[in-house]
Amino acid sequence: MDIIMWSLVMTSTLLFAIIFFTKIKSAILPSYDSSPLPLGTLGWPFIGETIEFISCALSHRPESFMDKRRRMYGKVFKSHIFGSATIISTDAEVSRIILQSDGKTFVPSYPKSLTELMGKSSILLISGSLQRRIHGLMGSFFKSQSLKAQITYDMHKYLLESTAKWSEDYPVYIQDETKNISFQVLVKALIGLDPGYQMDLLKKQFQEFIGGLMSLPINLPGSQLYRSLQAKKKMVKMIHRIIQEKRSSNPVVPKDAADVLISDTSEQLTDDLIAENLIDLMIPGEDSVPVLMTLTIRYLSDCPSALQQLTEENLKLKRLKEKLGQTLSWSDYLSLPFTQTVITETLRMGNVIIGVMRKATKDVQIKGHCIPKGWCVLTYFRSVHLDDDLYDFPYQFNPWRWQDKEMNICNFTPFGGGQRLCPGLDLARLETSIFLHHFVTQFRWVAEDDSIINFPTVRMKRGMPIWVKRRRDF
What is the DSSP letter of 418? Predict the structure, then answer.
């Protein structure tokens, strides 16, 4: 679930930190034992190194903040950003240990505005047995063959509906198109809602809710946070009605995530908790999954050889299935080897989630580094994924680097790790595989100039406009 949280924390803390990090408690550093801290500097009084961190994050090389300090202090160093004394890890092994640690050593640490908006019972914030329970239920459901079959059917249906409206006379904005498709698919998987009036209403309220994640933590009438909280209340009310309908119908076989949570016998899973967590789980449909799809098109547009090989692989499968008179199953999409290397390389280079944040609940020693109780920890994935000690020519889009190579879970963590590993990682790959298959077998395209923005969330500046032409060669 860390996949969701990074985009949330960065959007909220950007403005929050600049205005409020002069609070005295932010300047008082937590106590720690006599063990040596990692090298580094805490920067200016009160503001620390936040301004330089944000300045680098807004550049085309956001990891430059880390690179400079890695050269001076090593791959693990101390800093002071967003109002907190922080240990930053760009060391793959140290980050793995932190991610794999139990919930008693490191806990999620996010700004007050986020906890208020997400709710204290959100799976993104809670720890312990309740978090493991919800995460386990969702993880099992998201891996089920029945859900993958449904996702495959829905993706195919919504893709055909969307692409049928594309014109060769106007640019298609891939980022917007993928957001619309992905959100519909995910909401159907979560609460069983089909496109229509209720879906449109939910999406409208959800976008208002999302707006609060990039606002100042001021909960007063008229403020963005206030409007976002009101929008969330309306969504909770809508999902409550859906939950009540499901309880009265008493489904034997769970068809969506709501059914799975409702069927749990634990008294801990109240209707409020279920509703709020289902809303939280909608975030990837609006953010990380569409961005992953969009970035694959961006990188393929700049790499004709990769595009050609991926297209040939998908056309071959399409022709085979048509010859046999069969439709593609979810396993067909995931069995395309080069398509999977393209997705993997996009995850490595794109870094939709560039890291996760934790807070130490006690003094911790990792590889000779002391992480004091009360200090924040930022495990920065982007620096690991672009480390030239681990990857040859790391800034070059090269899907072939993954051929006949097993993924090292220490060096490659686009979905986080440990007990908070994103439970939807297989679905993200499946949705992207289906999108790529239908896109490259139906269209040729020319991309307009666009650039990647990496802060506060990863996205294309102009929405990735392309000009399409329908294929006639299959």
Answer: G
